[in-house]
Amino acid sequence: MAETLTTEQILEVAQDVLRRFGPSKATVVDVARALGVSHGSVYRHFPSKAALREAVTRQWLHRTHVPVAQAAKADLPAPDRLRHWLATLFDAKRHKVLDDPELFATFSALVRENSTVIADHVQELTGEIAGILRDGVEAGLFAPINDVNATARAVFDATNRFHDPAHSGDWDRDGIDKAFDAVCSLVLAGLTAQAGREVVQSH
Amino acid sequence: MAETLTTEQILEVAQDVLRRFGPSKATVVDVARALGVSHGSVYRHFPSKAALREAVTRQWLHRTHVPVAQAAKADLPAPDRLRHWLATLFDAKRHKVLDDPELFATFSALVRENSTVIADHVQELTGEIAGILRDGVEAGLFAPINDVNATARAVFDATNRFHDPAHSGDWDRDGIDKAFDAVCSLVLAGLTAQAGREVVQSH
Questions:
Q1: Per-residue pLDDT averaged across A128-145, rounded?
Q2: Which residues of B touch A (CB under 8 A)?
Q3: Do B167 and A166 touch (CB under 8 A)?
Q4: Which positions in chain A touch B161 (Cβ < 8 Å)?
Q5: Residue range B86-90: average pLDDT?
Q6: Which class does domain B61-201 fall in?
Q7: What's the complex ipTM?
Q8: Is pLDDT larger for residue B56 or for residue A196?
Q9: How far is B149 from B167, CA to CA, in rounded Å?
Q10: CATH 3.10.20.310 fits A54-201, yes or no
Q11: At what angle do helices B176-201 and A148-158 cross, to 10 degrees?
């Protein structure tokens, strides 16, 4: 296997190893053993245990993010697209935690230990929100926004009960979908507030 | 001391004991010893260790809540009062964690172990928000609201990065006040959206 060893194979097996041993115990040697190669072969792809852990964590985040990134490009007016994007994000995170709580806990711990990974992930998400906000302002469906990035972050923060793993204990509670809808409606009303006012004024 | 032992004295000392021993180790005997009384004297006020812990926890929450409850009654128009209330809540929580992180961790753990205490605390807070929302609707400063309690909860959820202890690690970060202002503005714009529209229409 060593000859054809790819980065993808290592990441795949490393994810299993992390899951089985837990993030504090899993080592590069464990990953190499599971692959049937020497640890030198793994180190040829990843210079350190930390680099391997970071790569596995990024891959895990990236996979969950695929449907969310698609939602950001959905063919919908900006307000509907934003609600769809938020719902897709919530669903993706919720499935991840409810389908496999152990793996979720493992990776949440890995994410927390690497603040660059978190920062990049938040930037990717708020970047998608900012894109939807710009489209909405351009179409006259959202009010003009002074600082799109700050407002995108405010939308992200205002909905964090529905995507931040710190709140995952609430995600299977009765009424959580109603609570999600109420927050989305409040946020969307805030974004359209001025736009609505201008529409009325122009009559 | 036993003759004049009051509930308040017990709660005061129990708080110290919890702080010194940690919530998992502190016992009624420790509290009694610190008071210089028999544990029977403490049990006369609190039927069990659990009851004493709950009373201490409620008292701790109640104390932090005093300035917040005052903010709910501030002599300000509803939108300004809501922003003031949210800022007071954030300040109160933030001071509590930054001034004495150890005590905050102790009590956060105690609060988490008692879901009734959390539910009552959330109900008290959302009740204050609901009161401000009703005043604002009545004054024509907020749009009419179908379900005031659900909207109050949405305001509470949308601002949770700035009051939920799960996010306390963010509270001394650069830019946190700007982030707080951005979320407040978004929420207030959402609440005034329709009201604004009606004001314009009546011109």
A1: 96
A2: 143, 150-151, 153-155, 157-161, 164, 166-167, 178-179, 182-183, 185-194, 196-197, 200-201
A3: yes
A4: 157, 160
A5: 98
A6: mainly alpha
A7: 0.86
A8: B56
A9: 24
A10: no
A11: 90
C-alpha B157, offset from chain centre: 13
Which of A146, A151, A157, A162 is the best substitution to test chain B (most B C-beta atoms within 10 A)? Answer: A157
B76 residue type, one letter: L
Residue type for B189, please? A
Gap from A80 CA to chain B (nearest CA, Å): 16
pLDDT attached to residue B50 = 86
Domains B2-47 and B61-201 share a fold: no
Q: What is the pLDDT of residues A70-83, one digit of tens each?
A: 999 999 999 999 99
CA distance A161 to chain B (A): 7
Q: How confident is the model at residue A3 (pLDDT cuts 50, 70, 90)?
A: low
What's the one-letter identity of residue A156?
F
Q: How many C-beta atoms surround the C-beta of residue B32 within 10 A?
A: 22
Give domain limits for chain B: 2-47, 61-201
**Homologous superfamily assigned to A2-47:** Homeodomain-like (1.10.10.60)
> Position of tokens 């954030």?
B90
Band (pLDDT 50/70/90 cuts) for residue A107 is: confident
- B180-193: b or e for each residue (b if 16 or more CB lie within 10 Å)? bebbbebbbbbbbb
Q: Is B82 exposed, middle or buried (0-12, 13-18, 19+ CB in 10 A)?
A: buried
Compute the distance between CA of residue A81 and CA of residue A71 in angstroms, rounded to an integer. 7
